[in-house]
Every structure is written in C-alpha cells, then in structure tokens.
Amino acid sequence: MKLEAVPLPDRQPLRESTLYQGDAHRILGRLPTQSVQCVVTSPPYWGLRNYGIEGQIGLEETQPQFLNRLVAVFAEVRRVLKDDGVLWLNIGDGYTSGNRGYRAPDKKNPARAMDVRPDTPEGLKPKDLLGIPWRLAFALQEDGWYLRSDIVWHKPNAMPESVKDRVSRSHEYLFMLTKSERYYYDYQAVREPAANGAWRNRRSVWSIHTQATDHAHYAVFPPALIEPCILGSTRVGDFVLDPFFGSGTVGLVCQKLDRRFIGIELNPEYAELAVKRLETLLHKVVHVVAA
User: Fold this and answer.
1) Which among 97-106, 130-139, 204-213 has the top mean pLDDT?
2) Of 83, 156, 185, 285, which has the highest C-beta tally within 10 A?
3) CA dist 98 to 35, 93, 165, 200, Å?
4) Helix 63-80 vs helix 132-142: angle between axes, to the nearest 10 degrees?
5) Are 23 and 76 in contact, with CB atoms under 8 Å apart?
6) Structural domain total, the chain
7) Residue 274 sits in which domain range?
C-alpha cells in the first residue's frame, strides 16, 4: 500500500482509484469537470455525532446552515459528475433537541448519547421530526438537481428504540438525483425477481440489513445498498465518487465490481481505517493524498 502526502494542483487528473484526506468541498474544487460517472454517498447527519474534527459537517448551529453547506458541496459534485451521471444520496433523520444541548443514551442504544446538540430549529417544536432528508432533497432540487426517485431503505434489523409514544424507526431514505433530464441507467442490471419467477423492474423499497463492523466507525454502508446503485449507473472501469468516504465501503464495492473510485474523507483516522480495509481485503494500491 502506497501512502502519499502531497499538495493538490489546481486540477487533479483522475487515473486510478484514489483516496483524498481533507475537506470535501475544497478537494472537489480541484477535481476535473465531468470526470466521474456516478456518486454514492452518505453525508454526516445533523446533530447525530461529534467526530471531534475541525470543519466537520453535522454540528452546525442551525438547520439552514447544515443544509446550505451540503448544497454547496453537492454543487461541486454536480460539476464533477458527467452530464449523464447519477447521484445516490443516503440521508437519515432525527428529532428536535428541545434545546437541551445534549442527548441522553437510549437503554437499547447507549451509543446515541451526545454531549452537544444544536438547538431546536425555528418553527419546530420539541419532539418534532426534523424532516432532514426531504428538506435536503428539495434544496438540491431547487439548486438544479433532478430529483428522480425516493428509495426507502428498510432495515429488517434496525436498532431498537426505547420509545413508548411513537413507532420505532426502521428506515432511511436513498435519493436518486441527476444533473440532466436524460442520463445513463441500466435497469436490466438491477432487476429483481418477481413472484411468478420472472424478473421485474426494481421497486422503490429495498429491504437490506444493516451490517456490523469490527472497525471503530459509527456508520457503515452495507455493500448490498451500494451495489445496485453502482451496477445501474456505471459501466466497467467508470469512476465512482464518494465525498464522505468514511471507512471505505464504496471503495470495496467498486473494486469488487471492477470500477474505479474517488474517495474523500475529512477525518484522518477514518481515512487510515479505509486504507487498512482496502489493503487487507483487496491487496490493491490506494494513494492517500493529504490536502
């Protein structure tokens, strides 16, 4: 495994799978226009985790600030994406804090505890569902993206919640967005079996188990969620971008499907973790470029 720490030029040519460690918006600004075929990503959720990294997204004081930062990042994503490319965006929701400034641990999920939380957004009430996924989807639509599909990621093994006044959540959203009215989509590559033994067009509810990991990363994409996105939106050898790379699952799936990947990760610990995962499982060379 080759590790490099080099400054980025004004435009960074794409030749091979690469992991950049640094700020997503800044690094995206150095990538060539129309250079990736597909984007599969899951940005940090608002008020969910404190990663302790300067410049992190997800702990903005207000909901509009959080949404505006993501819209700015995805504006650069749209520039980097080819005209016939597709963005697959996974984003989860949450509830208002009631201005408590913290979140207590759940008996069934102690990891949810936080020592800092944004205040309840203006116009919302204590215990309100934030509606972050759709607020972001509509903000991106207003910014020029085509909102093509809302996919419900149903989690059969969802984390239990100790709540008595509402149903327990067992889903997140995966949005399909494009930069053009017409784009590349191979529906045959992602067909699913029908009840009569034939094959049908993939439906908009995907039942996919969450996947535990031995590594110290809070949120890991299950590969089964990523695979249909890549199969339906790319050809062999295409570049797939994940500007919030985390522990590198998008990279693992790309290697499995013979695609190349571009990953960006702000947290140096997670970037190093991604390198170790890719090195151990795939024995491929990945360049980590600090920016």
Assistant:
1) 130-139
2) 185
3) 44, 16, 16, 45
4) 50
5) no
6) 1
7) 18-290
Q: Is residue 111 part of a domain?
A: yes
Q: What is the pLDDT of residue 160?
A: 86
d(CA 89, CA 156): 20
Closest CA to 174 of 216, 203, 143: 203
Pairing mode, strands 171-178 and 146-154: antiparallel
Gap between the Cα atoms of 103 and 116, Å rounded: 7
Q: What share of the chain is helix, strand, coil (3-state, %, to 5)?
A: 25, 25, 50
Q: pTM for the full model?
A: 0.89
Tokens 């110290």 belong to residue: 216
Q: Does residue 195 belong to any structural domain of this protein? A: yes
SS3 31: coil
Angle made by CA atoms 62, 222, 4, in degrees to the nearest 5: 80
